[in-house]
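User: Okay, second chain of the day. Same drill as before: sequence in, structure tokens out.
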Amino acid sequence: MKKLLIVSIVAGMVMVLGIGSAFAAGTGTSLKQGAFGFNVGYGNSVFGDTGVVTVSGKYFVAGDLALITGLGLQGSSGDVDADFFSISAGVRKYLKIDDFAPFLEGKLTYATEKFTGAAGNVHRDAFDVSAVFGAEYFLHRQFSIEGSIGFGIGTVDDKNANQDYTYIGTRTVGLSANFYF
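Assistant: Same drill. Structure tokens below.
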């Protein structure tokens, strides 16, 4: 039974990837000067929290160069009441304009996080500068999926501990979907 389930899952994945490739092949992209894009993503915050939803917009100043701005949000309740908010701005350079479009991105982010739990109250703010590498894969002329990872440096102001510190490390931006018009 387990073998049948594994074979079925693998066969389904191959079919989905094959169908996606067939739709994407030769469709071209919407990456052109003057185009607008809208992105919805899921990933980590600069504090390392998981489950942050980001919404961002792109404006193409050239076919391979876009200005980006975005908002990140996360909230929770229960044992820990937490709120996370971020705003970011950056520039993205596409290395290739095709159905598979790799890119480099520079980004500046301000983030704030407040939570209350068993450890007490925490309020901290961060400024982060990061370089991101990723790629978009176009399933349709106006729709792509994207994955990226980055490296950054930032400063955190921990309001409760009355302490500032600097950090450096990787940024897992996560997965997202892009819509172009």
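The beta strands are 36-44, 50-62, 65-76, 81-94, 100-117, 120-140, 143-158, 163-180.

User: Thanks, on to the next one.
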